Automatic annotation (TrEMBL):
This is Dihydrolipoamide acetyltransferase component of pyruvate dehydrogenase complex. Residues 81-125, 167-180 have a biased composition (Low complexity). PANTHER family: DIHYDROLIPOAMIDE ACETYL/SUCCINYL-TRANSFERASE-RELATED (PTHR23151), DIHYDROLIPOYLLYSINE-RESIDUE ACETYLTRANSFERASE COMPONENT OF PYRUVATE DEHYDROGENASE COMPLEX, MITOCHONDRIAL-RELATED (PTHR23151:SF90). Residues 198-235 form the Peripheral subunit-binding (PSBD) domain. The lineage of its organism: Bacteria, Bacillati, Actinomycetota, Actinomycetes, Mycobacteriales.
Amino acid sequence: MPEITMPRLSDTMEDGVIASWLKQVGDPVARGEVLAEIETDKALMELEAYDDGVLEQILADAGARVPIGEPIAIVGDGSGAAATAGAPAGSSGAQSGSAAAGSTGAAGSAAASGSDGAQADPAAASGGGVADAPVSGNSGAQAASTNPAADGGAQGNPAAGTGQGGSATSAGSSGLQGSSMPGEGRPDTTTTASGRPKSSPLARKIARELGVDLAAVTGTGPGGRITRQDVESAHRTGGFAAAGSGAALDPGTSGDGHDGIGAGASTGSAVTSPSAPAEGISASAPGAPLPSGDYEDVPLSRIQQVSATRLAQSMQQAPHIYLTSAIDVTDLLAFRADLNETLEAAGKGKVSVNDLLVKAVASTLRADPAVNVSFAGDKLLRHNGIHLGIAVATPAGLLVPVVRDADRKSVSEIGAEARELAGRARDRKLRADEMSGGTFTISNLGMFGVEQFTAVINPPESAILAVGAAQDELRLNGTEVVARKILRITMSADHRAIDGAIAAKFLQHLKDLLEHPLRIIA
């Protein structure tokens, strides 16, 4: 069966988040039809079907973060979907009372394949936040488990120990027994066949990061499934793995059970979660959960998460230097007004001050190529093309669409392209190639009345220009005091790649162009 895998949708993408599924299990799909929306580090993008067929399985729930290349769905001829929907509870490899023997026809239930009826929970991740593929063959092998006891050979739920329950399973002729879970002999629909609490891949990842014991979390999702919100709520109220319970993992493990940390191996010697408050430390200490009601969790979008990482790296790795120049844009504003009248008469769109600024920066970079570079360890990469990024604020975070070959385009062409890119950025409809390859970025906060600010360099670029609002200021013109429009721009440069004198020369050239606007279009 053809697997649909997480594609690489941008040059910096390492994984993607399933924003939503637009098709359900059993739906027919055509080649090129949109199956799902994927949130990348830069935008919300559509995932198209590779082939005609039927969506037989969804292997990663909405909200799951999946590494590139990992399977997220299966499209086949429809037989797999029928088997998934109609698999009888308690086939040849499963005993009655097994958590794997669920109700029939439930979407997202375990898929059975092979003569021994071995079952796999589509929500059960194997370390990477991706659901396991259905088990096939006739060996009766069970799907990979994230139960820490799985590799250590010890049976029993890591949090519940060897308590009573009727959720034991045997997969195929090998008779591998599952974990015991509370339930007094009745099927427990809140756990997987391995005895692990049912949870979304995203919930498991967050639980590992926060040190939350999923066995102690009450799920509020469908069928008692643990969601991200459940994990975050448990974290706020102190739902951590307790020392001595056998549930806590060594901080060096990945939490997927593949490091040999078995719950039953050394009861009472488990390492406490690094997030758990240590004895004698106030609950208000850093890392401890705050009292309920003192704050509200606001999850970051994928774009915000990646931006936070990249900008922090930029500040840590690139020594920033800042140069500010005050530019008299009185003539530039008058020139723009005249130009827009001409463009309007010709039936063309108007241009903004930012469009003129983009063109001026592009022309200056062509004249001063020493700024159009990237630092690469023992060398500089001097870019032949001048591709200007324009920072755009969107509800999901900051995006930087790129105007390519800006030095070769007219102001009118730059204006039309910039408006179109900014609009699609706010709608999260940009293509990956429209947000990559920039060599210099412009960030303009003048529309908010900000007079001056500094911006963080967008790696791998070596410079960014922060543009403020034009302000009325009194200037001496000969013997007269006149009111002029003064615009302040601040250049942030990576001192590893750009010396202060080079940056100063660049600003001097740019200032000359902006104060003599006819030269911009010359």
